[in-house]
């Protein structure tokens, strides 16, 4: 799994845009709200998730997933890309986008 796969998945999500993050790293947003961030060296990806999902991922594969920060009902998951499963990361990216995107964009993906 690498950053090129991440970019391919993000580009397929309606309304998703790439921006420059606070430290110059790629930041992925929908309607100006972030849902994923690549590390500057593109070896790690941080995605938005529910707290329960973060806990489950970290417990299941601590060599791949680690907790990032938490805010309200959401928690962020730090993913080591070269150890991650491509399909699982694509699902996590899509779910992070769903947690952020408005309903009309989600409907575009579901059709």
Topology:
Elements: H1 3-11, E1 16-20, E2 26-30, E3 33-38, E4 44-50, H2 51-60, E5 65-71, E6 74-80, H3 86-100, H4 103-110
Antiparallel strand pairs: 1-2, 2-3, 3-4, 4-6, 5-6
Explain how this protein is built:
It is a single chain. With 111 residues, the chain is α+β, with helices and mostly antiparallel strands. The chain has one domain (3-105): Aspartate Aminotransferase, domain 1 (Alpha-Beta Complex). The chain contains four helices and six strands. It has helices at 3-11, 51-60, 86-100, 103-110; strands at 16-20, 26-30, 33-38, 44-50, 65-71, 74-80. Strands 1-2-3-4-6-5 form a six-stranded antiparallel β-sheet, with helices on one face. The chain is globular. The model has no long low-confidence stretch (mean pLDDT 93).
> Count the helices. How many?
4
How many structurally independent domains? 1
Q: Tell me the strand order in the biggest sheet.
A: 1-2-3-4-6-5
pLDDT averaged residue by residue? 93
Helix content: 25-40%
CATH topology: Aspartate Aminotransferase, domain 1
Specify the biggest β-sheet: 6 strands, antiparallel
């Amino acid at each position: 799994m690498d950053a090129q796969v991440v970019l391919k998945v993000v580009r397929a999500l309606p309304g998703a845009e790439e921006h420059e993050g606070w430290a110059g790293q790629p930041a992925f947003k929908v309607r100006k709200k972030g849902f994923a961030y690549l590390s500057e060296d593109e070896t790690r990806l941080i995605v938005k998730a529910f707290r329960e999902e973060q806990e489950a991922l970290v417990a299941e594969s601590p060599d791949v997933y680690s907790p990032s920060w938490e805010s309200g009902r959401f928690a962020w998951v730090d993913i080591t890309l070269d150890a991650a499963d491509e399909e699982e990361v694509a699902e996590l990216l899509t779910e992070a986008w769903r947690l952020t995107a408005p309903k009309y964009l989600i409907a575009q993906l579901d059709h």
